[in-house]
Amino acid sequence: MRRAVWMLGFVALVACGGSEDTSTTATTVVDDPAPDTTATTAVPTTTTTSPTGLEALEPFPDPPDPGSGEGSGQTLVWAVTPGRVVGVDVEGGTVVAESAVPSIDDADVGFGSVWLVSCEEGVVLRLDDRDLAEVGRWETGGCPTAIAATEGGAFVLDVEAQAVLGIDGALPGAEPVVVVDAVGAVAFDAGSPIVFATPGDPLATVSLVEATPFGPGETIWETQLNGEPLAAFVHHSPFGPAFYVLFQPPGDVPPFVAVLDPADGTILDSWDPAPGEIAAFLVSEDLLVLGDAAQGVRVFDTETDEEVLVPAPDLEDIAAVQPIGGETTLAVAAGDAVHVVTTGAEEVDVVDLGANVAHVVAADPPPVCPDREAELLRQDLLERIDGDGHAIAVFADEIDSRVETWRRVADQAERDGDVEEADRIRAALDAIEELFGQLSVLELGLGSLADTIGRTCDVDELAALTPEVDDQLSGMTGIVEEIVAIGFDTVALGG
Question: Is the pLDDT of residue 13 over 80?
Fold first, then answer.
């Protein structure tokens, strides 16, 4: 239920437990009282004082002061199976979250969210990347088939509108804007700049567009290549973006990979990996990865163009490949499972999901900054976000776990004739729901900051982002403190 509510049960016990003799004054709270029971709803006969900070909250977890968070400790990927999306802890081999979804054509993750598109429903969905709760929905009016997260929202390829659309992540339900009128675009990747390819006869056009999801983009260059574009990929690194396009030339010539100059689109390098039916195409660090339906997972060194040895499991029906936790480990969607493949390793870990896995996505592992000062600053910021942000989120989720209990307590009070008490509890819970809405906005903002920090090695930019991280964490802690104060007021006599 969270995005909206809380944990009053613990607060009641804390507020009433200060006296040694609680047999006649303490409220008894049952974790899961049935609505038709006669649970006691009497309030204490002594008043309590609202706390001034999280430290007053025994037996709650320790307050999330800077440096106290322990982080999530999980390596997560998000997999799409028919009718659902699941969060998978690939190290533990367990499903940690799941949500029902319509038929999904593509997925991406970034900036604190999992993004999905459904051509069947004509919608774009944004889910919180921690619990997969829906936090945004947009109708494109057409057939969205591909999506890429970017700062502030997402880019969507709609084949019916024949355009790349921009989704403003802060405005759920708002009408998407046309970023690129890309008639016939069949392949693209985003993050700004966007690279996309439009087939032609006989030459295909590859374009680079500098854009945000809030309005029309600006074309930087266009170039033409002989063949049908199969896939495009923007690889972001500390040294700037690099552009890769997979082409199928006319006739019996095998597909080739072209590496394009970011300045003008000329071909810097190309090679023929002799692929079969391509199910996945991506670049991570110095590796180019192909999910080949016929030959399995194939990895190439982008410096030498040579194939890198990877385990050769008999993987069939490869649908997607995604790097996780660095350049040497891959999550592969194949059949009914997510397979964790590591270059040079003998074994492959398998997480069976019991249904065909169509997509698998994960947050891009941040590249290592060549500047040590920048790398230390960036790691410090990311550790604070993961540690402190996670601690606050866990704390808030524990609060949320008690909300339904207290709603039932209010219902019971009303049945017992104490309407005033019932109204008082409900008013507090309504106020807490509003605060949880504010907390959700800050959590999404913190996720967006983490993604931005992970993409830069500029010391000045990282220094400028530091107070933004401080403000987000401080704001989240302040909201939880307000929720706690409301909880104490609720259980205090005359509060």
Answer: no
What is the average pLDDT score of the chain? 74
For residue 209, the SS3 value is strand
The strand ranges marked E within 82-227 are 84-89, 94-100, 106-110, 113-118, 123-128, 134-139, 144-150, 153-158, 163-168, 177-180, 187-189, 194-198, 203-210, 218-226
Contact 227, 204 (CB under 8 A): yes
In this predicted structure, the answer to whether residue 489 has a pLDDT above a threshold of 70 is: no
- Give me the mean pLDDT over the 464-481 stretch: 90
* Number of Cβ atoms within 10 Å of the Cβ of 347: 10
Q: pLDDT (tens digit, 9 = 90+) per residue, 171-220?
A: 889 999 999 887 666 666 666 677 777 877 778 888 888 888 888 888 88
Question: What is d(CA 488, CA 54) in angstroms, rounded to the nearest whole number?
Answer: 12
d(CA 344, CA 309): 6
CB 117 within 8 A of CB 105: yes
**Is pLDDT above 90 for 307?**
no
Tokens representing 69 are: 């968070």
Location of structure tokens 């016929």: 294
Q: How far apart are CA 42 and CA 35, in angstroms?
A: 16
Beta strands in 111-183 (DSSP E): 113-118, 123-128, 134-139, 144-150, 153-158, 163-168, 177-180
Q: Is 94 exposed, middle or buried (0-12, 13-18, 19+ CB in 10 A)?
A: exposed
Helix (H/G/I), strand (E/B), else coil: 480 = helix
Which tens digits make up the pLDDT trace of 391-449?
Answer: 887 777 777 777 777 888 888 888 989 898 888 888 888 888 888 888 888 887 887 78
Three-state secondary-structure class, residue 36: coil
The C-alpha atoms of residue 83 and residue 69 are separated, in whole angstroms, by 35
Residue with tokens 């081999």: 93
